[in-house]
């Protein structure tokens, strides 16, 4: 009896929880630098017990396009700037991680998984050949987004975490 009750509770919780992570397109620039963010597959829907207990990955969830006219070196950072939820208890920022999937053109880059938090986390530190940045070329980064495992400690509802991307130069 106890096992059946637990199974029903687990299925009820897992069917009600939905994790929404929105990355909307954003573009910023000045006369020296630009950074464009486009989200493609940044939502997670947790509909069964397995989804609550395993890490989920959305391949090529978002794309960063960056370039500099001022220098051949720049760094890209990300952090969770806000977390909200319909039931009052937001998910921790560390619930999300990002991992570089591909980039063009091919340069030396970090393909490590970066767990996010509320402080800036270094995604990339890029140095391009001088002839590259003198021609005002852009670098495209395609990132996977990872979530969880969420577990059973959070109430059913809609959760939203906002990721803020920044670009700096040394």
Give your account of this protein's structure.
The model is unreliable at 1-22 (pLDDT under 50). The chain has helices at 2-16, 49-53, 130-134; strands spanning 18-20, 26-29, 33-39, 56-68, 73-85, 96-104, 113-115, 121-127, 139-147, 158-168. A 6-stranded antiparallel β-sheet has the order 2-3-4-9-6-7, with no helix packed on it. The protein starts with a helix and ends with a strand. It is elongated and about 50 Å long. The protein has one domain: Immunoglobulin-like (Sandwich). Strand 2 (26-29) and strand 3 (33-39) form a beta hairpin. The chain is mostly beta strands. The chain has 3 helices and 10 strands.
Secondary-structure blueprint:
Elements: H1 2-16, E1 18-20, E2 26-29, E3 33-39, H2 49-53, E4 56-68, E5 73-85, E6 96-104, E7 113-115, E8 121-127, H3 130-134, E9 139-147, E10 158-168
Strand order of the largest sheet: 2-3-4-9-6-7
Largest sheet: 6 strands, antiparallel
Secondary structure: number of strands? 10
CATH topology: Immunoglobulin-like
Low-confidence stretches: 1-22
Radius of gyration: 19 Å
- Pattern of helices and strands: HEEEHEEEEEHEE
Average predicted confidence as pLDDT: 79
- Count of individual helical segments: 3
Strand content: over 45%
Number of domains: 1
Categorize the overall geometry.
elongated
Helix/strand/pairing category: mainly beta
Just give the CATH class: Mainly Beta
Alpha-carbon distance between the two ends: 63 Å
In helices, the fraction of residues equals: 10-25%
Supply the CATH architecture: Sandwich
